[in-house]
């Protein structure tokens, strides 16, 4: 094999791997069709493109195809000169595909070089001429995935003939097999009748043949005497209009069959001589093989473009859904942040417990007197009477915890509602019903996060108590008192509070802030409050990010697969490599 041939095979293998992992699992519009197209492309690579690219001189494969009742098997039998395929009135007749070849070419077809998905069964011709399988007497319908191989002296060397199932068979598996065989062919002998030559199904396949530049001959079978003059010009006009102007048309008039169901040899002289002449001319065989191969790869490139577009749609849906999820949890984190700014956490029990601790009789008197009182309260806490301060901490923790859990639930509900809006989303939701609520154990993780944050505030205070004087003031007030005061300053605001709450909360926050300013100074208090808030916000976002990651994990399977860019790039590389190969046009 030439270097260009090896390069083309390498490009083909890369493209095949990408198509086999096209990543079209989501039920988006058109995805099922493109998934089938990717599978069909892989089959064609296996069945035809790879073996033909590996050896342009291998025997040609001529597939005889057509509609139900067109007489394909009868024509194949007549071309060979003996009944090798079943013909009858029961439809569908052809179930198991039969490949007839010259005995000298047996080695080309005994392996899985072509059509590797079909098991090989070696047949033999028995009297009065019907084929018999060496695999036993199982009914033909049970052997749809087997390829019967028949060697016969009347088949010209370097060419094999397959009698395909009906292209419009009532059996799905027969139609699929017929399409697979036609996609694996170097040339077609297409059989139709005077009554059905204009049917849509055959022309859909012939359009595909024209697009792939397959060499096609048409057999117009069962033509009533005298009707050819009317039908033939119309058929030839249709072939020209559909891109097949050079396709020869062979007319077989309607006539009696002999006792073995055979047509006279003269009736099929045209298609037989056409096949024989091709088989005898090596240059013509190479030209046909190269032309069909290039056409198949050009057509493959067109199909890959559509598959890549479908793949991009899958990734776009995942990306869009991921952004929607991120927005839900970012909004939840913003809502928690707002709740810690607007004074909502100082309502109710938190505010009451803070007032119990601070006292209300002389809260607006000099800070020195209040500081002395706070020191006494801290001393009482050290002596084992800390209940008012502990209540404040517990109420803050409970309030913050409730807000975080509530927003996590709201975000999960929002994600769930978004998933339910599309079929793809419903597929994800059905596979992951746990996404409808916050994750198991979220409440415990939120509580742990809050405790860690409270501990970080204590460390922040300790780290900023640099001088002995500041340390003495912190010790005098009590570390827990200073910590709670800083949390109150972080959460206090007039927003969200009404009536007397504004006065009380505002005054309470001022008292806490004055205490902190007495210890650290005004600028330091602002910085400490900002750092504490920034730390809390970051911790909340990390907590919600873990919830968002659950959805990302559920979407991960849809991300697996080839990239659209790799599909297009590998297909273009294959096309370039094949254009550099010689042989035919």
Task: State the gist of this model.
With 585 residues, this protein is α/β, with parallel strands linked by helices. It has helices at residues 3-20, 31-54, 72-80, 106-110, 172-183, 200-212, 228-241, 269-280, 282-339, 348-358, 367-382, 387-419, 423-431, 442-464, 468-477, 479-491, 500-520, 522-559, 564-579, and strands spanning 60-66, 98-101, 119-126, 130-133, 146-151, 159-163, 187-193, 215-223, 249-253.
Mean pLDDT: 85
How many E strands? 9
CATH architecture of the largest domain: 3-Layer(aba) Sandwich
Strand order of the largest sheet: 4-3-5-2-6-1-7-8-9
* Net shape: rod-shaped
Low-confidence stretches: 88-94, 135-142, 360-368, 377-386, 494-506
CATH topology of the largest domain: Rossmann fold
What features would you describe in this structure?
- With 585 residues, this protein is of the alpha/beta class.
- It folds into 2 domains: 59-280, Rossmann fold (3-Layer(aba) Sandwich), CATH 3.40.50; 340-561, no CATH class.
- It has 19 helices and 9 strands.
- It has helices at 3-20, 31-54, 72-80, 106-110, 172-183, 200-212, 228-241, 269-280, 282-339, 348-358, 367-382, 387-419, 423-431, 442-464, 468-477, 479-491, 500-520, 522-559, 564-579; strands spanning 60-66, 98-101, 119-126, 130-133, 146-151, 159-163, 187-193, 215-223, 249-253.
- A 9-stranded mixed beta sheet has the order 4-3-5-2-6-1-7-8-9, sandwiched between helices.
- A hairpin with a 3-residue loop joins β3 (119-126) and β4.
- α14 crosses α16 and α14 runs antiparallel to α18.
- The radius of gyration is 41 Å and the shape is rod-shaped.
- The relative contact order is 0.12.
């Amino acid at each position: 094999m030439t270097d260009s041939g090896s390069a083309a095979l390498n490009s083909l293998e890369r493209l095949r791997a990408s198509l086999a992992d096209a990543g079209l699992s989501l039920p988006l519009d058109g995805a099922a069709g493109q998934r089938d197209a990717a599978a069909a492309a892989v089959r064609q690579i296996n069945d035809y493109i790879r073996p033909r690219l590996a050896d342009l001189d291998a025997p040609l494969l001529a597939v005889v195809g057509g509609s139900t009742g067109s007489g394909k098997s009868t024509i194949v039998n007549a071309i060979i000169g003996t009944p090798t395929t079943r013909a009858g009135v029961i439809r569908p007749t052809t179930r198991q595909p039969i490949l007839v070849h010259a005995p000298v070419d047996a080695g080309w077809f005994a392996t899985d070089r072509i059509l590797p998905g079909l098991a090989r069964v070696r047949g033999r011709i028995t009297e009065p001429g019907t084929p018999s399988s060496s695999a036993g007497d199982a009914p033909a319908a049970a052997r749809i995935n087997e390829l019967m191989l028949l060697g016969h002296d009347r088949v010209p060397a370097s060419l094999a003939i397959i009698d395909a199932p009906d292209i419009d068979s009532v059996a799905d598996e027969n139609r699929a097999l017929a399409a697979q065989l036609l996609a694996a062919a170097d040339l077609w002998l297409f059989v139709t009748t005077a009554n059905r030559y204009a049917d849509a199904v055959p022309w859909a396949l012939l359009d595909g043949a024209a697009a792939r530049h397959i060499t096609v001959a048409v057999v117009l079978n069962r033509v009533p005497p005298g009707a050819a003059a009317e039908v033939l010009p119309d058929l030839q006009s249709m072939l020209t209009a559909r891109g097949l102007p050079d396709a020869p048309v062979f007319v077989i008039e309607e006539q009696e069959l002999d006792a073995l169901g055979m047509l006279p040899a003269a009736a099929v002289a045209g298609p037989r001589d056409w096949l024989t002449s091709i088989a005898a001319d090596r240059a013509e065989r190479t030209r046909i093989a190269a032309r069909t191969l290039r056409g198949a790869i050009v057509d493959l490139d067109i199909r890959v473009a559509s598959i890549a577009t479908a793949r991009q749609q899958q990734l776009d849906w995942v990306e869009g859904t991921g952004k929607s999820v991120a927005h839900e949890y970012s909004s939840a984190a913003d809502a928690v942040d707002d709740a810690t700014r607007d004074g909502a956490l100082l309502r109710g029990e938190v505010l009451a417990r803070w007032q119990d601790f601070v006292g209300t009789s002389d809260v607006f008197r000099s800070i020195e007197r209040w500081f002395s009182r706070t020191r006494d309260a801290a001393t009482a806490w050290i002596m084992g009477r800390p209940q008012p301060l502990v209540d404040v901490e517990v109420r803050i923790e409970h309030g913050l915890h409730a807000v975080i859990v509530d927003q996590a639930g709201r975000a999960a509900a929002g994600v769930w509602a978004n998933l339910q809006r599309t079929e793809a989303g419903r597929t994800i939701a059905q596979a992951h019903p746990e996404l409808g609520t916050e994750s198991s154990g979220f409440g415990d993780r939120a509580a742990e996060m809050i405790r860690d944050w409270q501990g970080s505030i204590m460390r922040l205070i300790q780290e900023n108590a640099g001088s002995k004087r500041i340390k003495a003031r912190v010790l005098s007030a009590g570390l827990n008192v200073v910590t709670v005061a800083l949390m109150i300053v972080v959460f206090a605001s007039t927003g969200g509070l009404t009536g007397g709450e504004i006065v009380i909360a505002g005054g309470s926050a001022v008292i806490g802030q004055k205490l902190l300013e007495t210890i650290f100074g005004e600028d330091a208090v602002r910085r400490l409050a900002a750092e504490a808030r920034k730390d809390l916000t970051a911790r909340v976002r990390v907590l919600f990010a873990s919830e968002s990651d659950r959805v990302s994990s559920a979407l991960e399977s849809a991300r697996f697969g080839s990239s659209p860019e790799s599909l297009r790039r590998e297909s273009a590389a294959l096309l370039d490599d094949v254009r550099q190969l010689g042989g035919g046009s």
